[in-house]
Write a structure and sequence with these properties.
Layout lengths: L2 H7 L4 H7 L13 E2 L3 E9 L7 E13 L5 E4 L4 E6 L5 E5 L3 E4 L5 E4 L2 E5 L9 E5 L2 E4 L7 E4 L2 E3 H4 L2
Antiparallel strand pairs: 1-3, 2-3, 3-4, 3-5, 4-7, 5-6, 7-8, 8-11, 9-10, 10-13, 11-12
Helix pairs in contact: 1-2
C-alpha cells in the first residue's frame, strides 16, 4: 500500500493528512476495490508557514479508505467537523468537512464536497493559502495554478485575520 506517499501528498489536505495516520495499518493486496470500515478520527495540529499566522486545526469525525483497482485511493470523512483557529488573535471558524479526496498514482488529487485544503509552494502549488472549498477541485503538483475547479472557495487566511 502507498500510505507513506499518500501521507506526504496529503499534507495538502490538512484534515486528511492527520487522518491518514489512523489508517496506515489497514492494507489490502487484492486487486478489487476494498474498504475498511471508517475509523474514528480525533486530531489537533498546527499549520505553519501558510498564512501570516500559525493556525490550529482541531478535527473530529471518521475517516474511511477505499483502495481502488486502478491504484488510486479514495478517502472519505463521514461526520468530520473542524475548528480552525488563528493562534495570533484567537479568531476561529467551525467547518463541516464530509467531502472526499481521491489520490491518483500520479499524485493528482481530486477534492469533492466540503474540504479543508492547504495550498503551499512547498507542495508544488503556486500560492500559500488555507482554503475551505465546497465544489469539485483538482490539484496537480507543478501545474499553474495548482488547484483548479469549480465551486465556492474561502481563503481562511484572510477570513481569520
Amino acid at each position: 500500500m502507498r500510505m507513506i506517499s499518500i501521507k506526504a501528498r496529503l499534507l495538502l489536505v490538512t484534515a486528511a493528512a492527520a487522518g491518514a495516520l489512523a489508517v496506515t495499518a489497514w492494507a489490502t493486496p487484492n486487486a478489487s476495490a476494498q474498504q475498511a470500515p471508517p475509523v474514528k478520527l480525533v486530531t489537533s495540529f498546527t499549520v505553519e508557514g501558510i498564512c501570516d499566522f500559525n493556525a490550529q486545526v482541531d478535527a473530529a469525525g471518521k475517516i474511511g479508505t477505499i483502495e481502488l483497482p486502478n491504484g488510486a485511493t479514495l478517502l472519505t470523512f463521514p461526520g468530520l467537523k473542524a475548528t480552525v483557529t488563528n493562534l495570533s488573535n484567537g479568531n476561529k471558524i467551525s467547518l463541516t468537512l464530509p467531502g472526499t479526496t481521491k489520490v491518483l498514482p500520479s499524485g493528482e488529487q481530486i477534492f469533492s464536497g466540503p474540504n479543508l485544503i492547504t495550498r503551499g509552494i512547498a507542495f508544488g502549488d503556486n500560492v500559500n493559502a488555507l482554503v475551505y472549498a465546497t465544489g469539485r477541485y483538482t490539484f496537480v503538483p507543478g501545474r499553474v495554478p495548482g488547484l483548479q475547479g469549480s465551486g465556492p472557495v474561502t481563503n481562511l487566511c484572510e477570513t481569520l485575520k
